[in-house]
From TrEMBL, chain A:
Gene Ontology molecular function terms on file: heme binding; heme transmembrane transporter activity
One family name in Pfam for this protein: Cytochrom_C_asm
Gene expressing this chain: ccmC
Record flagged with keyword Amino-acid biosynthesis: no
Transmembrane keyword on record: yes
Name of protein: Heme exporter protein C
From TrEMBL, chain B:
PANTHER family for this protein: CYTOCHROME C BIOGENESIS B-RELATED, HEME EXPORTER PROTEIN B
Species of provenance: Rhodovulum strictum
Entry membrane topology: Multi-pass membrane protein
Entry coiled-coil feature ranges: none
Single GO BP term: cytochrome complex assembly
Family note: Belongs to the CcmB/CycW/HelB family.
Gene Ontology CC entries for this record: plasma membrane
Origin superkingdom: Bacteria
The protein, known as: Heme exporter protein B
GO molecular function per UniProt: heme transmembrane transporter activity
One Pfam family it belongs to: CcmB
Subcellular location, record wording: Cell inner membrane
Predominant place of localization: membrane
UniProtKB/TrEMBL annotation, chain C:
GO BP, one annotated term: cytochrome complex assembly
SUPFAM superfamilies: P-loop containing nucleoside triphosphate hydrolases (SSF52540)
Keywords: ATP-binding, Cytochrome c-type biogenesis, Membrane, Nucleotide-binding, Translocase, Transport
Molecular function in Gene Ontology: ATP binding; ATP hydrolysis activity; transmembrane transporter activity
Protein name (Swiss-Prot/TrEMBL): Heme ABC exporter ATP-binding protein CcmA
Designated gene of the protein: ccmA
Keyword Transcription regulation: no
Domain ABC transporter: 3-204
Species annotation: Rhodovulum strictum
Length: 242, 218, 204
């Protein structure tokens, strides 16, 4: 039995229906455990105060914002190479989720930035990169919405996703270069993993897992909706033909 | 393919506004900026490289939706797609014609507009060089965006939304090269990056754009 | 060059519209496609011309043997008749446009901008374009739209001349063009909806 059998819409609908309740349950469990642990059961860091606890939302959201784009890239490549409709629809379904994750990362970053740096927004390379990623998501979603023919829309958005990925990576390096050019080195490092104690790290891991599960659940759910929409459109078209 | 290039140039000249419109827009953007930020020489000189690059970029954007739209409407694109020349070549020639009618005049006019913004004397050469290196990438990326949106109603607005994020690296390296040149710092890195982006887009994007046109004509 | 189409199926907007289309077109002959609106005449012609992929089936002649023309002529209004024609000749690797101008009675108009031509003159220029492609099989989609009776007659004569010189033509049209041609009604080839019992890869 080949992995590609799950790319058949019918098979996908059956399988996703079977596994979704379990995924939703795990998502809820790990989210509650991770956030409660992170928010209430960790000590306050001496130089950050209680504001540090926003990392339990901020870091997983930021990670999924990037991973969602990578997943869309993979799904787009699968669609272009193997022409599985489910793959194209999964890419389409993931885009708004990724957009929301980017928005959460930016918003929590701004809320955190105010007490930490005294400003909601700084043109830090990392922040700027996420803003650019946000624009990429907007363009991708807008292109899907604008094209009526579903196959053409899937093809064109896939091409955009591939070209966009290259430019997104390029932008990341350009932004790094640009900011170093203006300020001599970054004064505020956002790199947490290096200097984080285990007591903060373990609940963060649980939250990361919870966000991954949340992403999978949302994308599966949205893909199911997209498949149903396509099915309805196909039925209407057949009705008109007959 | 040369014939296509020459035809597009002839069309741009005869339709009027092919050369002029983008330049006039560039001029207006640059003239408006001092009204917005005030006439102080120091402020204007500091932001001049960025304003000139952003202005050139927006002027470039203005004419993008016409690259394929007219050819799509009058059936030329169908005929070009069935012609013996490769569609990748058609795309590259379209981008070249767009550059000659917008990027090249913008590059040549930029020093004059730099005068209005009190650009540092040391930066004029870098300004022209960076625009000459970077505007071909703007035309090529824009042609790719135009290929994605050809045949769409309200394609113009969508085109801007798709293309502007792709312009970010070019803009950063272009403006940075001028700003560093103005400050007397070494700017070989941004100039090399700019040239690299231009060469890479010229080499790769015609294939993506031609694929997009084939999908849109289907 | 023979054009043999076997068991061709083609789709519009992702939905199959025609299937099992088979015919043979020999040099010197013309084939008229008939059928109600929306049956897929344009889709079939665009598939043959290589503008969209076929779902299944074979086409013996490559797209490079066909000159495709829809009712849009691909003319630039600000260029003159001669410039328009010379451009397409160069794109198709040809040099001689004098014969095309002459044959379609355009020599006197050669320096007039295309925007000052009448509808019939534009159509003649569009047809002259077919001649400078140097391709044997003309694939024409509703070529007589917006033409008056005299222009239709001129057009018919031009196609007849092309056939006499060993070319062939595949034309989707509703009217008679004044020369002998085989007719092919596409109605029997309308794609039948497939079985509905399950989701398949195409959702239909």
């Amino acid at each position: 039995m080949s992995l590609w059998e799950y790319a058949n819409p019918q098979k996908f609908m059956q399988t996703s229906q079977a596994v979704l309740p379990a995924i939703w349950g795990l998502t809820a469990l790990s989210m509650v455990v991770g956030l409660v642990w992170g928010f209430f059961l960790t000590p306050e860091a001496e130089n950050f105060g209680s504001t540090v606890k926003i990392i339990y939302l901020h870091v997983p959201a930021a990670m999924m914002a990037i991973n969602a784009w990578v997943m869309m890239l993979v799904a787009s490549l699968i669609w272009l190479i193997r022409r599985h409709h489910v793959s194209a629809l999964a890419a389409r379904a993931a885009a708004p989720v990724g957009l929301t994750m980017t928005l959460i990362a930016l918003a929590t970053g701004a809320i955190w930035g105010q007490p930490m740096w005294g400003t909601y927004w700084a043109w830090d390379p990392r922040l700027t990169s996420f803003l650019i990623l946000f624009l990429f998501y907007l363009g991708y979603i807008a292109l899907w919405e604008a094209i009526e023919n579903p196959d053409a829309a899937a093809d064109l958005t896939s091409v955009l996703c591939i070209v966009g990925s290259v430019f997104a990576v390029l932008s990341r390096y350009a932004v790094n270069f640009w900011n170093q050019g203006l300020h001599q080195g970054a004064t505020l490092s956002l790199d947490k993993q290096e200097n984080i104690a285990n007591v903060f790290w373990l609940p963060l891991l649980v939250c990361l897992g919870a966000f991954i599960l949340l992403f999978v659940a949302l994308v599966l759910e949205r893909t199911r909706t997209e498949i149903r929409v396509r099915r309805i459109k196909a039925l209407i078209a057949r009705e008109r033909m007959a | 393919m040369i014939a296509l290039f020459l035809r597009d140039l002839a069309l741009a000249i005869r339709a009027g506004g092919g050369f002029g419109l983008g330049l006039a827009f560039f001029l207006i953007v640059v003239v408006l900026v001092p009204f917005g930020v005030g006439p102080e020489r120091g402020i204007l000189a500091a932001i001049a490289p960025g304003i000139l690059w952003v202005g050139a970029l927006l002027a470039c954007l203005l004419s993008l939706d016409r690259i394929f739209a007219l050819d799509f409407e009058d059936g030329s694109l169908d005929l070009l797609a069935t012609a013996p020349i490769p569609l990748e070549g058609v795309v590259a020639m379209k981008a070249a014609a767009h550059w000659v009618t917008t990027g090249l005049p913008l590059t040549l006019a930029a020093p004059v507009l730099g005068l209005l913004l009190h650009l540092e004397p040391a930066a004029y050469g870098w300004l022209v060089l960076s625009l000459a290196l970077g505007t071909p990438a703007l035309s090529m990326i824009g042609t790719f965006g135009a290929a994605l949106t050809v045949g769409l109603r309200r394609g113009g607005l969508l085109l801007s939304l798709l293309v502007l994020p792709l312009y970010v690296p070019t803009l950063i390296f272009g403006a940075e090269a001028v700003a560093r040149g103005a400050a007397g710092q070494a700017n070989a890195t941004p100039l090399l990056m700019l040239a690299g982006i231009t060469l890479a887009t010229l080499a790769l994007l015609p294939f993506a754009a031609a694929a997009a046109i084939r999908i849109n004509l289907r | 060059m023979d054009l043999t189409v076997q068991d061709l199926a083609c789709a519009r907007g992702g939905l199959p519209v025609l299937e099992g289309v088979s015919f043979t077109l020999r040099p010197g002959r013309a084939l008229m496609l008939r059928g109600p609106n929306g049956i897929g005449k344009t889709t079939l012609l665009r598939t043959l011309a290589g503008l969209q992929p076929a779902l299944s089936g074979t086409i013996s002649a490559p797209p490079e043997a066909m000159a495709y023309a829809a009712h849009a002529d691909g003319l630039k209004p600000t260029l003159s008749v001669e410039e328009n024609l010379r451009f397409w000749a160069r794109v198709f690797g040809q040099r001689d446009i004098a014969r095309a101008l002459d044959e379609f009675n355009l020599t006197e108009l050669a320096h007039r901008p295309a925007q000052n031509l009448s509808a019939g003159q534009k159509r003649r220029l569009g047809l002259a374009r077919l001649l400078v492609t140097g391709r044997p099989i003309w694939v024409l989609d509703e070529p007589t739209v917006s033409l008056d009776a005299a222009s239709v007659a001129l057009f018919g004569a031009a196609v007849a001349q092309h056939l006499r010189m060993g070319g062939s033509a595949l034309i989707a049209t509703h009217i008679h063009l004044g020369f002998e041609a085989v007719e092919l009604d596409l109605t029997p080839f309308r794609a039948r909806p497939r079985a509905m019992d399950r989701f398949d890869e195409a959702f239909a």
